[in-house]
Amino acid sequence: MGQELIDSMKKHGAWQMAATLAREESTFVYAKPAPFLTDPFFTRSVSAAVLATLNDPEYQNKIAAYPDFPKFHGLLEMAQRNLKRLADAGIPYGFGTDSGVPTRFPGFFEHGELELMVEAGLTPTQVPTAATKSGAGNKVAP
User: Fold this and answer.
1) Distance CA 85, CA 7 (A)
2) In 3D, which of 3, 14, 1 has the Cα closest to residue 92?
3) In angstroms, what CA-CA distances link 2 with 25, 56, 141?
4) pLDDT per residue as tens digits for the range 36-61
């Protein structure tokens, strides 16, 4: 993300409405047994068939065999750097995961998004503010 874009966003009052870091993570997290597949908070909200699929080595190999798979970790890292850069520049930002599509589970991925935002360098105060106050249309100070 270049400074020219950041300057334009500031000039026009544009927001980064949703970092959707969990979306980026979902592109590679299932290539091996994801740590949350045994988390009771997760397992009680998905069917046994979904759990079986996500734990299936054949399914995991299919994910890892995607031609662009080696790029996916880097896309998450880039998205995290971009979010941090926007926040540091004073660009208002909101919260979102793009959950609801297959392999992005509503209710669970929002928690992961919060963690990924903190890993990006946002403070534990900035993150819930993005998920609540700014999501309600109020500008968030970085």
Assistant:
1) 12
2) 14
3) 23, 41, 21
4) 999 999 999 899 999 999 999 999 99
